[in-house]
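Chapter review: from sequence to fold.
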Amino acid sequence: MAEAYGGNISLTNSIHNPKVAILITDGTNCDEELFYAFQKYGGDPKYVHVNELRDKSQNLKNYQILAIPGGFAYGDDVASGKILAVELISFLKDQLKDYINKEGLVLGVCNGFQVLVRTGLLPFGNLGKMDATLAQNESGHFECRFVKIKIEKSQAKFLDPYVGKTLDIAVNHGEGRFFARAQNLAKIEGQKLVFCRYVDENGQKTQKYPDNPNGSLKAIAGICDPTGKILGLMPHPEKIVDITQHPNWRRGNVEAKGSFIFEGMIKFAKQR
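The token string follows.
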């Protein structure tokens, strides 16, 4: 496992691998798992502190993928991901715009998804304007367990090989209920921006608890923007890239299916 904040692991030759900026700040966690997952599937990740972007010692233009991990950025004060979202909009708006204009890939996991929604990058790429939110779980408490999601056809074309696949995946969140006004929800569905949903044992999308852990509308677990290059999801795919990360791995019939998003993004970045 990578050493925290700046350590490196050497699983692959990173010279020609897509460079991945793992964005960190106070309260970030799951960054080591994200680092490990990207490197395992052919990326060249580096921890980049938000202050390094602000003081210009680092620049997103030097990376092909920006990944925002889970955790509790700035203690989730005000609302989950809100302060980091405001920081990105207030101090790094131009840098983000330049990065997105050059078609860099973006992934936000859990707290990172909350950040992307609160910046307005998801769902419609309206930087500085919120068109959806992630509200408190309907259960009224923090959800920390494995659930099932199903990958479906979306604007994220590099995920096409995984469409129809159902996988076990970890969730760890208290504010994961995806919510949008009816007109925005219809737009999200109409533009095919949903790339994964919570499903039941039969692989059918569901609003029922506990299969839908937070009450997300339309069972939405992950979305992309209209370009298909900015993605966010509440579940943690980086927590199931090794079989031994599953609680029932000793019983067999377990696959490390969280690899789908890392394989897809890395392959796409290499082809560009």
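Two observations follow directly from the output. The first helix runs from residue 31 to 40. The longest strand covers residues 143-151.
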